[in-house]
Write a structure and sequence with these properties.
This protein is an alpha+beta fold. It is about 35% helix and about 25% strand. It has one domain (about 5-85): Glutaredoxin. It is built from three helices and four strands; from the N terminus they run βαβαββα.
Length: about 90
């Protein structure tokens, strides 16, 4: 089963550029689907509420099966790229 990584950021968040860069790097490698959500926008805020996200950046690893169940999350922090790769089995 494929997984995807959802990255939640906010415009004025000082830690969010690192999370965005991590997501872009993973996206470029093509090993996992990456989705970005800006919680300053209605769509991003709605998605953040679904996962009860209260801090940015937040990264949520979930199956790409339509169920959207949370496998693992990093809230208010950005893990290293190797941590993400380990979690997805790379």
């Amino acid at each position: 089963m494929e997984n995807k990584l959802k990255i939640f950021t906010k415009n004025d968040c000082p830690k969010c550029p690192l999370a965005k860069a991590l997501g872009e790097e993973l996206k470029k490698e093509g090993k996992i689907k990456v989705e970005f959500y800006n919680v300053d926008q209605a769509e991003g805020l709605a998605e953040a509420q679904f996962y009860s996200i209260l801090a940015t950046p937040t990264l949520v690893l979930c199956p790409d099966d339509g169920e959207e169940a949370e496998i693992k999350s990093w809230r208010g922090e950005t893990p290293g790229i190797e941590t993400i790769k380990t979690e997805i089995g790379l």
